[in-house]
Every structure is written in C-alpha cells, then in structure tokens.
Amino acid sequence: MRILLLNGNTDSAMTERMHQLGQQALARMGLAHVTLVPATARFGARYIASRTAAAIAGHAVLDLVAEHRDTVDAIAIACFGDPALDAARELAQRPVAGMADASLSIALATHARVALLTGGTAWVPMLQEFAASRGWPAERVLVRAVTPTGDMIAREPERALSLLAEAAGAAIAEGAEAVVLGGAGLAGLAPRL
C-alpha cells in the first residue's frame, strides 16, 4: 500500500521529518507493507500561519493530489487545518485523511472534551471554525495556542516545550480529558510533554 504524505507547507525539511516519524510509526505497528510517499507543496507559505496562507495551501494540496492520485492508494494531508480536505477527497477518488480531522475524530471518540493545542494565536479562530464545520461543538473542542508559531516551534522545540506543557495543563484544568497537538511543526513533541 502506498500513502501520499502530503505537506501543504513548502518546507521540505518539515516533510522529511514527518516522513521519518511516519516510517518509525509504521515499523512499530508492523506495517512493513505500507510505503509513505512524501510530497511538499510547490508553492505557498513555508509554514501556514494565516487564512491567506491556508487558502493558498488548499490550491497547493489539490495540485499534488492531481499529480499523485493515480500512483497511490490513499492520501494523508499532513498539514494541520486540513487545507482543501473535502475538495481533495472529491478529486482523489480514494481515501484522503486530514491531520486535524483524523486526530480530533479519534480523540473525540474516546473523550468527552478535548483540547486542541497549536502554535500561533492566529490559528485559534481558524481551528474553532474547522471544528464547528466538522460538527464538533465548542464545548467539546477547546482550541488553545501558544504564541510561537509552529514554524518557530519546529526550529527551536526546546524553547517551546515549557509553554506547550503549561498550556496543556491549563486546558486539562478547564476540563479537557485529552490534548491533541496540532501542527506539522509540532510533530514528534507529544512524548516529550
């Protein structure tokens, strides 16, 4: 099975990091028959941190879906906020999963209240709207952000760990039963919190 690991950001180092983490996860799960095919957006923002960048990323995602859809069995949009998720599903005509949609679906299947924690305060209203568009009420999904953007966190994770831990603790104090770290730049940080 071949899965397109599609990064809607233009940072190829981030794509490679997610690819490495994905390969490690597949190995732990004994899924040697699954191959991740990494792809990085050819245009748009290095790291999505605004509505404009997210809209452009949607176009970049669809560009890569059109290019790869006939060579893969499924597609994973490895870009939190899932730019163009529904359009990608329509275009691909094969399974397409979005990082935000999948992680929140799993968390909400087992927990009454979940905190979605990301980097960059501009993401808070965008992710609140995303959750609402998926039918998840605000009382079930607490969207929180630390000030450094995901890009900043990816470049200097040590500086952000205490901020993320503090924000996660505050969300738990507000009633969150689980915390989802959202954003490609936060990939691999969960075990360290």
TrEMBL record:
InterPro entries xrefs: Asp/Glu/hydantoin_racemase, Hydantoin_racemase-like, Iso_Racemase_Enz_sf
Gene Ontology terms, MF aspect: amino-acid racemase activity
Protein name: Asp/Glu/Hydantoin racemase
Organism listed in the record: Pseudoroseomonas cervicalis ATCC 49957
Any Pfam family the entry gives: Asp_Glu_race
Family: Belongs to the HyuE racemase family.
